TrEMBL record:
Protein name: MBL fold metallo-hydrolase
InterPro entries, alphabetized: Metallo-B-lactamas (IPR001279), Mito_Persulfide_Diox (IPR051682), POD-like_MBL-fold (IPR044528), Rhodanese-like_dom (IPR001763), Rhodanese-like_dom_sf (IPR036873), RibonucZ/Hydroxyglut_hydro (IPR036866)
SMART domains in the record: Lactamase_B, RHOD
Stretches assigned to the Rhodanese domain: 267-358, 373-461
Cross-referenced Pfam families: Lactamase_B (PF00753), Rhodanese (PF00581)
Residues annotated as transmembrane: none
Chain segments annotated as coiled-coil in the UniProt record: none
Species for this entry: Flectobacillus rivi
Length: 470
């Protein structure tokens, strides 16, 4: 028996490959099917089942394409109603994979169809639980993401409590917990950086499992939840209703366009020009009105947060060789309408003498010196509110990137505004959006808050433990 966790850091998502005696089960695959097919071929094995823990909100799963390519049966837990062929299992139903069994445990709460999958090994031992978004390491799934549910988040949190108490916490302490996500995912609020653990440790250390009653659990789980990204319900609908073949999406998105063809496509299709290069490279020169969301950061989640239309035509500017990776990452969160990329990259555009723009930057040291002498300088901190509340420079206002549209009216176009985040990624995203909206007097503080803090020259707010704020 082989159990492999396939973890994708930029989405903080875990898929699973389980093989026994030449048969394979895949749990919660990402959009691309090739890695799973190649992994099975390496074992000379056949993918028999694709298990889905629920209709995911934070990414588009690859279950449909994988099933179409391999003949594998898609399996959901009870109450799921997908708009494509799938097997809807009963609670407690077992599926044979080689010499092992996978048992379906219906665990509603995160969503109504949410199910966990219990691995029973060759000796009949309960070996591992693939808990999806029901149980994380250090946390449990948030109960406010269900699509078109008639239940309140309090109702769902109550169901989640019962699912945990009656289906998962009754299992032996040595059962391995394999969750659907790790730290960085917006599907929970307190997830550990660890991506697997023994159930016994979670019983002792997971804050949500310490509740003495359902009422206390509901309160603990719902306290501190932030608004989920706008693409979450849209991805859930795609996972329920179906989506385009990913190979076709990639073929369309990786069409190489000359600078002239790129400009024509931008005008004709009213396309968004998305520059996925590193922030420092973008600052030195970019196509006017392009938006910078770098591939090296949490690219997919920031695209999903900031680009509201999944059908928005997108043109890409990438480093050479990163075109397919960018299109694939877009497709993982439902952006299937990439229509091509700039052949030769930004350098090809500039070489033809076409119009370019740049971003003014300032070192953290120089910014600190200016701000120390004149604290009337306008500056904004685009980190999340929780980061800002923990610690920030006194006198600098918070305008979280997540909700930048809400703060635009308060930014004076005629006054130079300095922008920083934690390290420089998000501030460049924010500046690119503002410049595309006509703001010109913007300066990026390189290195962000971490570099500002390292100078030890500006007054910072005292750190306040979040528990004291409740």
């Amino acid at each position: 028996m082989k159990v492999e966790q396939i973890y994708t850091g930029c989405l903080a998502e875990a898929a699973y490959y389980i093989e026994s005696a030449g048969e394979v089960a895949i749990i919660d695959p990402l959009r691309e099917s090739k890695p799973y097919i190649e992994r099975a071929e390496k074992d000379n094995a056949q993918i028999k089942y694709v298990f889905e823990t629920h209709f995911h909100a934070d990414f588009v799963s690859g279950h449909i394409d994988l099933s179409n390519k391999t003949g594998a049966t898609i399996v959901f837990g009870p109450t799921a109603q997908p708009a494509y062929p799938a097997y809807i299992a009963e609670d407690g139903e077992e599926f044979k994979v080689g010499n092992i069994k996978i048992k379906v445990l219906h665990t509603p709460g995160h969503t109504m169809e949410s199910s966990s999958f219990l691995l029973i090994d060759e000796n009949g031992k309960e070996n591992a639980i693939f808990s999806g978004d029901t149980l994380f390491i250090g946390d449990v799934g948030r109960p406010d993401l269900a699509v078109k549910s008639d239940l309140t988040q309090e109702d769902l949190a109550g169901l989640l409590y019962e699912s945990l108490q009656n289906k998962i916490l009754t299992l032996p302490d040595d059962v391995i917990v394999y969750p659907g996500h790790g730290a960085g995912s917006a599907c929970g609020k307190n997830m550990s950086k660890e991506t697997t653990d023994r159930l016994g440790n979670q019983k002792r250390f997971n804050y949500a499992l310490q509740a003495k009653s359902k009422e206390q659990f509901v309160k603990e789980v719902l306290t501190g939840l932030v608004t989920p990204p706008q693409y979450f319900p849209k991805n859930a609908v795609m996972n329920k209703m179906g989506y385009a073949n990913v190979d076709e999406v990639i073929a369309k998105g990786t069409q190489a366009l000359s600078p002239a063809a790129f400009e024509a496509a931008s005008n004709e299709e009213n396309a968004l020009v998305l520059d996925v290069r590193a922030a420092n490279d973008f600052a030195k020169g970019f196509i006017p009105n392009a938006i910078n969301i770098g591939l090296e950061g949490q690219f997919a989640s920031w695209v999903g947060t900031l680009i509201t239309d999944l059908q928005q035509p997108i043109l890409l500017i990438t480093e050479e060789g990163n075109e397919e990776e960018a299109v694939l990452r877009l497709s993982r969160v439902g952006y299937d309408n990439c229509i091509g990329y700039l052949k030769g990259g930004f350098e090809a555009w500039a070489a033809e003498g076409r119009e370019i723009d740049t971003v003014n930057t300032i070192s953290a040291e120089d910014f600190v010196e200016k701000f120390s002498k004149d604290n009337t300088l306008k500056a904004i901190d685009v980190r999340r509110k929780s980061e800002y509340d923990s610690e920030h420079v006194v006198g600098i206002e918070n305008a979280p990137l997540d909700f930048l549209n809400n703060y635009m009216a308060s930014i004076d176009r005629d006054v130079t505004t300095y922008v920083h985040c934690a390290g420089g990624y998000r501030s460049m995203v924010a500046i690119s959006i503002l410049k595309a909206r006509g703001f010109e007097n913007l300066v990026d503080v390189t290195g962000g808050f971490s570099a500002i803090k390292a100078t030890n020259k500006l007054k910072l707010t005292d750190y306040v433990c979040p528990s004291t704020l409740l």
